[in-house]
Amino acid sequence: MTSALCDVAIAGGGLVGLSAAYELASRGAQVTVIDAGHPGRATDAGAGILAPDTYPGDETYWWEMARRAGEHYPLLLERLRGDGIGTEDSGYARCGLLSVGLRESEDSWFAPFADRVTRRSGGRVREITPDAASALFPPLGPVHRVLHYADAARIDGRGMAAALRQASERRGVRFVSGTVSGIRAAGGGGAAGGGGAAGGGGAAGGAGGGTTPRRAHQVTIDGHEDLQCGALVVAGGAWSAELGELLGCPLPITPTKGQIVHLGTTQESDGWPIVQPLLTHYLVPWPGGRVACGGTFEAGAGFSATVTAAGLHELLRECLVVAPGLADAEYLFTRVGLRPTSPDDRPVVGSVPGWGNVWAATGHGANGLLLGPYTAALLAAQIAGVTTGTPLPKVPHELDPARFS
Description:
By secondary structure, this protein is α/β, with parallel strands linked by helices. The protein has helices spanning 15-26, 60-82, 107-120, 130-136, 157-170, 240-247, 309-322, 368-384; strands spanning 3-11, 31-35, 49-50, 97-101, 125-128, 145-149, 153-154, 174-177, 180-185, 216-221, 226-234, 254-264, 274-277, 282-286, 290-294, 330-341, 348-351, 358-362. The strands form four sheets. Strands 1, 2, 8, 9, 10, 11, 17 and 18 form an eight-stranded mixed sheet that branches. A four-stranded mixed sheet has the order 5-6-4-13. A hairpin with a 3-residue loop joins strand 14 and strand 15 (290-294). The protein is globular, with a radius of gyration of 22 Å. The two termini are 35 Å apart. 51% of the residues are buried.
């Protein structure tokens, strides 16, 4: 077969891969996205909570990154609209969020959480009364303590991905449906990971080290012509480990299954805030009376994307504990997503060790819809070496793929 050509090949067509494609194409790169279309992609199922100020951890770098990721969304949506893309289906809205402690017995967890997030937020998060919370979210049951985060937002992963794909296509990005089955280093020498020689050329600089890094030159795609590339981005979500094996470099990403139930009410829910209990499942309202309840965390389910009785039972039970006012809601559907999870629960973003032009953007876990577009933008700026608008910070070193080598 003959080979097609591009500056950057992106393996993965979820939100992270699409964001990277759009950012790179916006910087003038010729980009090809290879999309295996696996069932259970996290982008298509996620609840879409954008609430960096109520992140429960105390790692400064993480909170700063999450805050900037939240601020990135309206700027990205504005750019998409500037490209003539409608963004209504993204569902983006500042709906607010209620962090709740259901019982007095939860105070040992809730009190330090409330102290940390209210101090850190600079006034964006404040405590309100249970009665005030019930007025904002009428189906809510009895609660002990509530924090209100008025600036929290929501996003529909499917709609956002569709807008990014349309904008990328307008900027010349090529899409190929298929699975990557081989990666060859420049200069020949067989499949990547098997001793291919280092080569020159390509669109990106990369990893250092004591030896000259190899350079990905050609990608084999099942059922399609080979693809010659100047750089490769691994954005395979829960399936990224397979690409790591082809590269001979560990990308220890595993799937964590999440089931999310969607219910329909006769009430208008558009003005309701997200409800996020500290110790159980969240509720995300959408216009038209739809409320999503999620999500299960099933680390041992492998790549199964099936809806299970146990998952439904857990979600509906916990939903009605938090919001008994939804007892008469209609069951609409259940979505299943496989969160790409790293061993330390941090994203894996940066140059792949041993390669001069291969990059990873994966492992975002339960935070993919929040962090994905922003980390993809940081990585795209690093790959392209071209700044558009305000310069972006570097990818935090805590996300470096080399930590697993």
